[in-house]
Amino acid sequence: MGMVHLASAVLISLTSLLPASCNKTSPPENAPKNPPTSAAVAGAPTNPPASHNLGEITLTNHYETCVQLGDGKNCTLTPRMLDRHNSQITLAFQSKTAAGKTRDLSVTQIVAREGQRLEVVVGGFSLSFTPHINGN
């Protein structure tokens, strides 16, 4: 009988967390159909990511290459060859405070073809470069 009381107590506790009713109200007739986004409401312009053309970069298989982007921001590129023409590149974008502490860290992976220019957005930066991978 004790188990039934425990189960009832748990059920009552859980149902008290649910809302009392589910009402779906329609917006007033004079309300806009598509309300503006918060950026539009605030009047703040949306800034495109900062763009950096790194040109042709020679990377070594399984070795990190760090590119300084200024203002305590850098991007570490780590390639891994998949075959003779393709590699997977891990990009880790990091920004630091003046005291040297990490403020932001964004990591993404892309598959790149040897000698083909590519663009990737990571950590608020749009990076473009042409990778050349040494197979060491």
List keywords for this structure.
alpha+beta, disordered N terminus, single chain, globular, 47% strand, 2 helices, three-stranded mixed β-sheet, 136 residues, four-stranded antiparallel β-sheet, 7 strands
What does the model show?
The protein has a 4-stranded antiparallel sheet with strand order 2-3-4-5, with no helix packed on it. The protein has a 3-stranded mixed sheet with strand order 1-7-6, with no helix packed on it. Strand 6 (118-122) and strand 7 (125-134) form a beta hairpin. It is α+β, with helices and mostly antiparallel strands. The protein is 15% helix and 47% strand.
What is the compact description of this entry?
The chain has 136 residues and is α+β, with helices and mostly antiparallel strands. Helix content is 15%, strand content 47%.
Write the SSE topology.
Layout: H1 2-17, H2 38-42, E1 50-60, E2 65-70, E3 73-81, E4 86-96, E5 102-113, E6 118-122, E7 125-134
Parallel strand pairs: 1-7
Antiparallel strand pairs: 2-3, 3-4, 4-5, 6-7
Number of helices: 2
Question: Order of helices and strands, N to C?
Answer: HHEEEEEEE
Strand content: over 45%
Quick one: overall form?
globular
Low-confidence stretches: 3-28, 35-45
First-to-last CA distance: 72 Å
Q: What is the CA-based Rg, rounded?
A: 26 Å
